Amino acid sequence: MTATYLYCEYKPGLEGIPAAKSGISYVDGKQGILEYRGIRIEELAAKSSFLETAYLLIWDKLPTKEELTEFETDILYHRRIKYRIRDMMKCFPETGHPMDALQTSAAALGLFYSRRALDNPDYIRQAVVRLLAKIPTMIAAFHQMREGNDPIQPNDELDYASNFLYMLTERKPHPLAAKIFDVCLTLHAEHTINASTFSAMVTASTLTDPYAVVASAVGTLAGPLHGGANEEVLLMLEEIGSVENVRPFIEKCVANKQKIMGFGHRVYKVKDPRATILQNLAEQLFEEMGHDDYYDLALELEKVVEEQLGSKGIYPNVDFYSGLVYRKLGIPTDLFTPIFAIARVAGWLAHWKEQLGVNRIFRPTQIYTGVHNAPYIPIAER
Ligand code: CMC
Asked: Using a 6 Å CB cutoff, which residues line ligand 1?
């Protein structure tokens, strides 16, 4: 499936083709290393918070205490959404997927904040604050409204992670649940040029507004080969049902060349470091809040997949254990991918800002495989 074209080889899926220079994150897929701005993900997961990590990604420095407080306060102040956005969301079908609701609402923000000043640092900062602040509120509002409830207003006493869990349930979350949820956001915040980030960069390169950039990335994240895999993992565990069924299920998938959700990665050929951290977080949650039988299934699944596909470099990716954590936190399965989006907004915005600094519109080429000088056949003769 490769062909030589001018000076380079055609690679389906652009595998291994550099599409940009970036200082935001780094992945070593052979050693299982992930760094944000040079800092190892394990260190950020243990010591940072999601908002501090977002600041680091976007502004390329760890904030001082004052800078972080100001950033967190700005975000807290902008969490509410306009009643017109809520009214628009009320018209969405309650059976619709929350990722579609999110994509539509993120794009709608562009209607309300239409001034565009891409060369103004204040504008950039305001767009960053608005998107990070409002996306969790929009997801929670859609969830409440599809259940027939009024949206729950953000609670100013709660931090970013606690407030999102609160808006889903109207209960203040257990501190461990909030802490672990915040770490999950940090783990999902950025991951070099993956499909949704590339989508964000292509959209950004046209110099459109940041709400369009994020809406386009949300649409890309929704697919089952990308962010949608976390939801599919839980559906798969549900289908497997018991530990005894794991082996026959995997053998059938392998025989039919069917992809096993939550496994495999374009870059990692070892276990994704984020999967290792998430597995530890899941275990902490089970210890505090009770065991989940799905974890036994997941462990067996990892063992059997490694046995059968480890030689091809197929190991758990970030989506494999995140679903188990979210399930234990009582989050509905179809909100798993929107939660991925809450986190990845940080990475998308970092790439948006980086792209603006060196912008040249993305316009790749193609290898034409069609015919030339084809005759136009009149409709009556076709
Ligand atoms: N289960 C079984 N076999 C697999 C899997 C899997 N999950 N992933 C890759 N393979 C096999 C594939 O069949 C192929 O085998 P062969 O060479 O014999 O034909 C080989 O590995 C290479 O696969 P590929 O599809 O060419 O690899 P890719 O780099 O294009 O795809 C991927 C990467 C993530 C799309 C793929 O591994 C996959 O579909 N995984 C399942 C979906 C998933 O978990 N996605 C989440 C990805 S991580 C987070 C994110 O990006 O959002």
From this structure: 13, 194, 225-227, 229, 257, 259-266, 309, 312, 314, 317-319
Indicate the CATH number for domain 21-218+338-357. 1.10.580.10
Q: Give the closest residue (by CA) to ligand 1 atom 39.
A: 225
Residue ranges of the chain that CATH labels 1.10.580.10: 21-218+338-357
In the chain, list all ranges with CATH 1.10.230.10.
Answer: 229-328
Q: Where are the beta strands (DSSP E) in the chain?
A: 3-5, 8-10, 25-28, 33-36, 39-40
* Listed residue (125, 198, 242) closest to 344, CA to CA: 198
CATH 1.20.1340.10 fits 229-328, yes or no: no
- How much distance in Å is there from the Cα of 317 to the middle of ligand 1? 10
pLDDT tens digit string along 239-295? 999 999 999 999 999 999 999 999 999 999 999 999 999 999 999 999 999 999 999
For β-strands 33-36 and 25-28, DSSP reports them as antiparallel
pTM of the predicted protein model? 0.94
